[in-house]
Amino acid sequence: MLTRLRNLQNQGRVRQAPATPDMVQPPSLRRLLRLSWRHRIWRKWQRGDLRWLRQIFRLIVRVERNQRRLPLPALLALFEPGPEDAPLGEDELRRVERLTLAVLRRLYGRDFCMKQALLLYHFYRRAGKPVCIRFGVTRENGQLRGHAWVEWEGRPVAEAVDPRQQFAITYTHPPDGHRA
């Protein structure tokens, strides 16, 4: 199929590539593993990563299921670590942060800031870090655009650019911003 499509593209008959199954299918663990195998990410995996991936996917399902059903405070309460969640060490926290970002990039491509914030909030709280989630808005081309991020010790976590300079903060959880 791909060879035929490439031949048609080379002949100039096909100008735009059709939608691939990657774009049509909803995110799944099977897709992530298939893409990881294709890109040889298996070499970078460490012992225990499948356990972390299972937890990350469980949290992603929790977000997808409740994001549009629950008001924001109730949704945020779902991501508070429970007594059954084992505390994380520094090395585990760094590893699970990298895995979380990699999974979200693979599944959603871009525009997954709320999912990223909720998952990182959960894992940082399990590590005992006093983090908070910030939600902010900005106006671009006459339209409002929102963003969510996690702050620890007054600095954004896992953000390429400091969102505080671009977005006006509209909501913080927990309200005092530093509860552990």
Write structural notes for this entry.
- This protein is an alpha+beta fold.
- It is 45% helix and 16% strand.
- It is built from 7 helices and 4 strands; from the N terminus they run αααααααββββ.
- It is globular and about 45 Å long.
Number of strands: 4
Describe the sheet with the most strands. 4 strands, antiparallel
Task: Please work out how many helical segments DSSP would assign.
Answer: 7
> How are helices and strands ordered from N to C?
HHHHHHHEEEE
The fraction of residues assigned to DSSP E strands is 15-25%
Low-confidence stretches: 14-25
Q: Largest beta sheet: what is the strand line-up?
A: 3-2-1-4
The pLDDT mean sits at 79
Principal-axes geometry comes out as globular
Supply Rg.
19 Å
Percent helix, as a range, is 40-55%
Structural class: alpha+beta
- Measured distance between first and last alpha carbons: 54 Å
Defining key terms:
7 helices; 180 residues; 45% helix; 4 strands; alpha+beta; four-stranded antiparallel β-sheet
Would you summarize the structure shown here?
The protein is of the alpha+beta class and 180 residues long. It is built from seven helices and four strands; from the N terminus they run H-H-H-H-H-H-H-E-E-E-E.
